[in-house]
């Protein structure tokens, strides 16, 4: 139970970084050689992950709230863990308040964690969209 709580706290802190700052600190939640995958697009290492969020910021003002729920640890040992969570994303370009009141997407997030120097970090994150309107414009590349 303590591991589940810790990993959920880590996941929500990462999304807080994206929603409340420019997201450029997100790579600190990952190992230096991590993979971040949105749909069929993959980004590898801190540099590429930082670039994803710098590009998102360069688009201009955006309001987003990434709501993570139902985190379930599917495997774990003393130095590795895998967890699946659900992500509900409310997002729209522009300044608040926005008129969007339905989720932009609902996704599964599979995180592989590794314990390094006493801290859990994400070694790989795969985000698979389950529900999305056909005209959705996400701020990160997915294809």
From TrEMBL:
This is Nuclear transport factor 2 family protein. SUPFAM superfamilies: NTF2-like (SSF54427). InterPro entries: NTF2-like_dom_sf (IPR032710), SnoaL-like (IPR037401). The lineage of its organism: Bacteria, Bacillati, Actinomycetota, Actinomycetes, Kitasatosporales. Signal peptide: none annotated. Pfam families: SnoaL_4. Residues 11-126 form the SnoaL-like domain.
